[in-house]
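Journal club side-thread
Mid-discussion, someone asked how the predicted structure for our own chain would compare to the paper's figures. Pasting it here so we can look after the session.
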Amino acid sequence: MKYDDIDKAHLTKEYTTHMTMLIKVLLISKGDVVECGGGIFSTPLLHWLCKMQNRKLITYETEPSYYKFEKKFQNPGHKVIFVENWDDIDTKTHRGVVFIDHHPSERRMVETLRFKDTADFIIIHDTERQSREYNKEEVFDQFKYRYDWKDCKPWTSVFSNTKDLSKLFF
């Protein structure tokens, strides 16, 4: 996909359903934020929320067309890093929030597990899909707390091993 085609191909409601959970979790959390796979909706939203809250943001991206768009948001508080190999990203440093919405899709559950002990909150987009790249109960079962936002598809789910989500979302 060419950079000029991003907005035409992705200006649909389905590409915005993660926004509610991103806003909610950013407003109740602290610490640095990681975005695995940026986009025309999530990157600007996270950029401005993190700037408003004086939080650091790292956007990791593998798609050249998205990277070109996301790179425009880079500043001292927001690093945008092109990823050649997902195994090379930093998953050891504690993060307040990690947003999982990257490609290839088979890496989503891999990164979810890699961040499970270092992130306060992990937000995953597209969790209603039956595809095992997007939805593995054996991965989700490794979290103490889970909240699924199902008001519209695709669903967005929030996971944590340290924060009781039932008290945050009800």
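Post-session note: The chain has a mean pLDDT of 90.
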